[in-house]
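I had to read the description of the data format several times before I understood it. The format is easy to grasp once an entry is in front of the reader. For illustration, here is how one protein appears when written out as sequence plus structure tokens:
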Amino acid sequence: MQTQSPQEITRLLVAWGDGDHSALEELAPLVHSELHRLAHHYMGGERPGHTLQTSASSTRRTSV
């Protein structure tokens, strides 16, 4: 997935805040992808054999 500019993310957040539910549908995969990328980076420094995986640390969802 292509990285979005901060301006595009801000535009989607504002649109979602204004009630545009399609903006959330577009934003969610972008945020998930970035969280997964960050988790992978930070988990790379963990000791071998640790039990937390990057997918587990980036998939927790809350109700919107």
